[in-house]
C-alpha cells in the first residue's frame, strides 16, 4: 500500500495531467499546500507500519488512534475556534491543541478500560497518552505530523508502560 501510494504521489507530482485528475477526486479532502507536494498519506502509512513493527500491540493501536482521532479533532477545533485564543510557536492554536489532547485522552481511556489494569493505572496512562498524542505535533521537528504523532506518542507510551511495569 505504501509502495502504491508513493508511486501515485510521484506520478501526480511529475505529470500535471495525473495531478489534475487526482485533484478532481481527492482535492476537496486535501490541504492546499498538498497540491504540489506529498500529501500526508505516505507519512500516515509509514508511521503506522513503524508503530506496528516497533511497539507492543496496545501501544501501536493507541498511537495510530491518536493520529486517526486526535489530529482531525485538533484540526477541526483549530480551524473553527483557533482565532479565539492564543497560538503556540508553530502557528497551531491552543484551542485546537487542547481539543486534540482531550480527544487522545478519551481514546486512551476507552481503549485501556478494556484492558486488565488497575483504574489508577488507566487514569495515569490516560493523562500521559493524551498529552503525548495531543502535544506531539508541537515538537520542533521538520517532520509531517502524520509521522510524528504516532512515533512520538508511541515512544512516550512505551516508556510509561515500561516504568509502570506493564
Task: List how many beta strands DSSP finds.
Answer: 0
Q: What portion of the residues fall into strands of 2 or more residues?
A: under 5%
Question: Strand count, sense and closure of the main sheet?
Answer: none
How do the SSEs run, as a string of H and E? Answer: HHHHHHH
Distance between the termini: 33 Å
Q: Could you estimate the helical fraction of the residues in percent? A: over 70%
The parts where pLDDT drops under 50 for at least 5 residues are none
**Structural class label:** mainly alpha
Query: Tally the helices: what do you get?
Result: 7
Rg computed from alpha carbons, rounded to a whole number of angstroms: 17 Å
Mean pLDDT: 93
Estimate the global geometry from the Cα principal axes.
globular
Reconstruct the topology from this structure.
Layout: H1 2-14, H2 16-26, H3 41-54, H4 57-81, H5 94-112, H6 119-135, H7 145-163
Mind explaining what this structure looks like?
With 166 residues, the protein is mainly alpha-helical. It is built from 7 helices and no strands. Helix 4 (57-81) packs antiparallel against helix 5. The two termini are 33 Å apart. The model has no long low-confidence stretch (mean pLDDT 93).
Defining traits:
166 residues; 71% helix
Compact summary:
This protein has 166 residues and is mainly α.
Amino acid at each position: 500500500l505504501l509502495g502504491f501510494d508513493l508511486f501515485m504521489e510521484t506520478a501526480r507530482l511529475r505529470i500535471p495531467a495525473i495531478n489534475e485528475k487526482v485533484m478532481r477526486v481527492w482535492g476537496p479532502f486535501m490541504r492546499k499546500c498538498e497540491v504540489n507536494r506529498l500529501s500526508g498519506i505516505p507519512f500516515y502509512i509509514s508511521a503506522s507500519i513503524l508503530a506496528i513493527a516497533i511497539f507492543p500491540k496496545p501501544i501501536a493501536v493507541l498511537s495510530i488512534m491518536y493520529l486517526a482521532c486526535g489530529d482531525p479533532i485538533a484540526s477541526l477545533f483549530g480551524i473553527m475556534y483557533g482565532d479565539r485564543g492564543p497560538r503556540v510557536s508553530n502557528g497551531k492554536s491552543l484551542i485546537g491543541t487542547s481539543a486534540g489532547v482531550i480527544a487522545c485522552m478519551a481514546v486512551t481511556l476507552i481503549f485501556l478500560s478494556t484492558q486488565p489494569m488497575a483504574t489508577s493505572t488507566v487514569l495515569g496512562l490516560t493523562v500521559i497518552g493524551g498529552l503525548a498524542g495531543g502535544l506531539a505535533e508541537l515538537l520542533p521537528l521538520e517532520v509531517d505530523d502524520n509521522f510524528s504523532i504516532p512515533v512520538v506518542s508511541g515512544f512516550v507510551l512505551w516508556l510509561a508502560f515500561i516504568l509502570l511495569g506493564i
